[in-house]
Amino acid sequence: MRLWLKDPIAVLADGAERGLVVEDGRIVELIARGHVPSTPAQAVFDASRHVITPGLINTHHHVFQTLTRAHPKAINKELFPWLTALYPIWARHVKPEAFRLAARLAATELLMSGCTTAADHHYLFPLGLEDAVDIEVEEAHRVGIRMTVTRGSMNLSEKDGGLPPDSAVQDEDTILADCERVIARYHERGPNAKIQIALAPCSPFSVTKSLMRQTAELAAKHDCRLHTHLGETRDEDAYCLHHFECRPVDYLEETGWMSERVWLAHGIHFNDDEVARLGRAKVGVCHCPTSNMVLASGQCRTRELEAAGSPVGLGVDGSASNDNSNLIEAVRHALMLNRLTYDATVSHLDAFRWATEGSARCLGRDDIGRIAPGMAADLALFTLDELRFSGAGDPLAALVLCGAHRADRVMIDGVWKVLDGLPVDIDVARLRAEHGAAAKAFLETI
Q1: Which CATH architecture describes the domain 3-54+373-428?
Q2: Is the CB of residue 284 less than 8 Å from the CB of residue 313?
Q3: Which positions fall inside the Amidohydrolase-related domain (predicted)?
């Protein structure tokens, strides 16, 4: 069916003043001012209350962390003490059913915020949670969101000089075998992929160099992407200098990770030479403004990275270092933090670019992230009906500056997944009750 989304307030695309036409899960035509569809549409949606953006794309999350938001043992801490407080709690209490609810809740939250594609970095595989990737794929299908599920890993525990407890890590052979398994079972290639697998050793302070090298070789063999945390804190710099006698970017290069199949989470503490090297290699960086502020980690050098050639995307990061999974809120935080970092010429369009086209590039996708003919019909529609928007002149700027936090409608692959602010296939009240009950176990140690 050809569907005309007709006469929106505004569209984040040129030449679409009268909206756009969707057919068979694709955008097939943009309708300019004074025009109508070249071929009559079989259905018309009156979009006169809506501002339309591409579906937002989240390139870094940890869905299991929704179970420990604002945890009393972890609040008001920087990254390393925050992690050491939470690692034992996660290793003890993240069981399959709790993880399933966490994945469902995070995906639902993201969807309601206008996010249509998400990347989750899952690195926690204590005994009993070996099938975490399988669970997360099932829940992505259930909610209806596109997802890059990363098979993360940790094999360097406290006894070996790492940060995580022994109970939270796996051995290298187990990790690599499961990477092969989930790629073979779930990784979709080509346009319109719903589920993709990436490989994601957690961080320099939780994995060995051997695992980093072998994971890079495995990703090249299967043509999938690579992801890790890097350059997040000064403590990480000190750790790498002490244990590896090099800085994090040197570590990345030594282990075979300086390639365009790689995107990094955070990427804050890079010097000029490192920014240039990352740019030449086309290594992507996911900017996580909310988490970086919560943990006082620092400010990503977005302008310099983009100028050097690195794709820059946007991520909410885990819901224990952000405390929600709201990507349109992260767009606003990105704007504000980058204005503080640079100046007032950082615009709402920059922030939207990171959350759409930049994020798509980080994930290696050219079929999502823009409103243009041939692109996937992944769209977020926001209204300006709330008091916060009254008096706003520029509708697209208003979404960011006035603080939009919830999409009214969301479409993925041409199918409505959110209507009137609520997901069509999820009982939100029931999910809240079940997830909240599961999360109580994470407070037992207090």
Answers
A1: Roll (2.30)
A2: yes
A3: 51-415
